[in-house]
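INTERNAL AUDIT FORM
Audit reference: QA-55
Scope: verify that the stored structure record matches its stored sequence.
Auditor: D.O.
Record contents follow.
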Amino acid sequence: MIMSFNKVEANSKPNDSTSLETTLAQQETSFQNKKKLDKKTLRKIFWHSCMLDSSWNYERQQNMGYSFAITPAIDVLYDPVRDVEKRKRACTRSLDFMAVTPQLSTLLLGVNAAMEEQNATHSDFDDSVIAKIKTSLMGPLAGIGDSLIAGTLRIIGTGVAIGFAQNGSLLGALLLLLIFNIPAFIIRYYSLKFGYNYGSEIIKSAAKSNIMELITFAASVVGLMAIGAMVASFVSFNIPLSVGQGEFAKPITDYFNMIMPGLPQLLLFSFMYWLLGRRGVKTVWVLLGTIVLCILCCVIGIML
């Protein structure tokens, strides 16, 4: 599951850009670029990240999956005999609270791996900054990921697939899988490489600008446009009532459409959104209620 109404909102995580920039600045010493993580290890992290949501829990959400994903880096960087204490602290850090869009989790994993590498190769590295970076990144990445991937990419893929599925074509299901998963895997793969290669540099750049907020806003606008197009195209709501008599009778739906094309569909969608988002009604009950309502309407001659 990529996104749900139960998911913790992005703004519930700390994102103090000023303190983050200060913390990173304190770590800018004459560190040498000693790379210990090879491509094989990074590939392991990539594949392990696909299991991020497999052990989701209410206390710390994705922390078990995140710990599993970063484990290949910990195994390489910290010797189980010589670096026992550092290894323990790294494992403990990996089990902190985690809530991020799975497809962008690799960016966080890449930055985390780069900083664990610095911690393993430099005795004067303050390992508390690793936890601070994770905490500061979760909020922006969750906001961007949910808007860009779950709120835009998935909606576009679903919109394309529904058109084929309505005609009984199996291509609809295949297109949904391809349109969503191909870009999602590309984003997941290159986010890991980007996060690892550039490490804290990307965090310092983001802390000095509002680029993350701009990306989130732009993705939200595109997602809302896609949802609006889907509502107008695929939601059907016909009211079998007419105004007037004889040949002058006109369906009441036409009057609604004269006010605004697709107004009945918009009202129905807005009511469903109000139930889910404002009243907190569970999705299952909304679906069951819709099914029962459709059956009753068909019995009395109303086609929804």
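Auditor finding: record pair retrieved intact. The chain has two domains: 14-223, 244-299.
Action required: none
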